[in-house]
């Protein structure tokens, strides 16, 4: 009988449903530490696995601020660059609430595209004290995936949830309570298991992510007959925003009234679509057609949902600010 090579998995806790129990009023609130969650998942039964835990924060992810994402990115960077693990690092798992997991996942993708070990996000739709919680299975699946990789191999950040392994970029929450609460919106279905490759960077070469705090990127949704009222307020505000995402109609079109309001702005604009699948395709003419938006300098969000396109613009703005 062969024994797997001992390796370390870092599990970072942030709260979320996976840590929730019901209080005296029956409300779900984050209350369990990451050690409790790891114990409930029986990670000690995975051969060769050495778990290192850290409670970064404990909150409902709907309350997540940019400052909190900065704290999480710093914790991920620290986990990747530590040199005092007892066994080689196999990967990092970020336990996260589902409401804004897609935003944090996108930040992980943008800031750590070449991490020397895989970075995974997972959580739960049912709380810690549910008679049949789904969190333990999700966490065990994530840890098992890391331990199954050849030593020294990695792949891009993933969301592991409901039996699915989905790329962090392009995956968003699409069901409020189903065990399979996340879906991938890319042009084709991802592989069942992501293909791994030898790590290209040493942990010591990873730059620390620049902070997002203090930046502002907003999302505006286009609807039939939309006025320019909200856009006018944004464009005339004393505090200049750092970017704008438009959740457009169809393949990337907006009412003409919105185009006029955006004609003289200096911040970057990314156009996504409110349609779940298919992505943006700038082909239609007319004042609000996608072709006109592209000629006006607006960028395509391609297959990204607006929530993740916003994080992309935030990360770009953070890098630009750090270089100034």
Automatic annotation (TrEMBL):
It comes from the Bacteria. Its EC number is 3.5.1.1. Substrate binds at residues 61, 98-99. Residues 172-194 are annotated as: Disordered. Residues 9-183 form the L-asparaginase N-terminal domain. It catalyses: L-asparagine + H2O = L-aspartate + NH4(+). Belongs to the asparaginase 1 family. This is asparaginase. It comes from Corynebacterium urogenitale. The gene is ansA.
């Amino acid at each position: 009988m062969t024994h797997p090579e001992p390796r370390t998995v870092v599990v970072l806790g942030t709260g979320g449903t996976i840590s929730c129990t019901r209080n005296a009023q029956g409300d779900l609130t984050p209350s369990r530490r990451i050690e409790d969650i790891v114990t409930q998942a029986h990670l000690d039964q995975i051969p060769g696995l050495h778990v290192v835990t850290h409670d970064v924060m404990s909150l409902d992810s709907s309350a997540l601020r940019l400052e909190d994402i900065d704290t999480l990115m710093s914790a991920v960077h620290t986990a990747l660059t530590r040199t005092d693990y007892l066994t080689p690092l196999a990967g990092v798992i970020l336990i996260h609430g589902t409401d804004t997991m897609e935003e944090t996942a996108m930040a992980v993708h943008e800031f750590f595209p070449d991490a020397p070990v895989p970075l995974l996000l997972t959580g739960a739709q049912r709380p810690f004290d549910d008679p049949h919680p789904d969190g333990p299975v999700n966490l065990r699946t994530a840890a098992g995936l890391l331990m199954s990789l050849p030593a020294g191999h990695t792949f891009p950040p993933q969301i592991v949830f409901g039996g699915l392994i989905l790329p962090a970029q392009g995956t968003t929450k699409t069901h409020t309570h189903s065990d399979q609460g996340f879906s991938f919106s890319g042009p084709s279905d991802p592989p069942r298991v992501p293909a791994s490759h030898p790590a290209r960077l040493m942990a010591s070469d990873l730059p620390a992510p620049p902070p997002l705090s203090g930046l502002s990127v907003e999302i505006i949704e286009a609807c039939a007959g939309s006025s320019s009222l909200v856009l006018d307020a944004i464009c005339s505000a004393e505090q200049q925003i750092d970017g704008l995402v438009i959740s457009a109609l169809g393949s990337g079109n907006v009412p003409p009234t919105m185009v006029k309001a955006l004609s003289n702005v200096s911040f970057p604009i990314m156009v996504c679509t409110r349609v779940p699948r298919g992505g943006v395709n700038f082909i239609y003419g007319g004042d609000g057609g996608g072709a006109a938006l592209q000629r006006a300098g607006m960028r395509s969000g391609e297959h990204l949902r607006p929530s993740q396109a916003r994080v992309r613009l935030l990360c770009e703005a953070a890098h630009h600010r750090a270089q100034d």
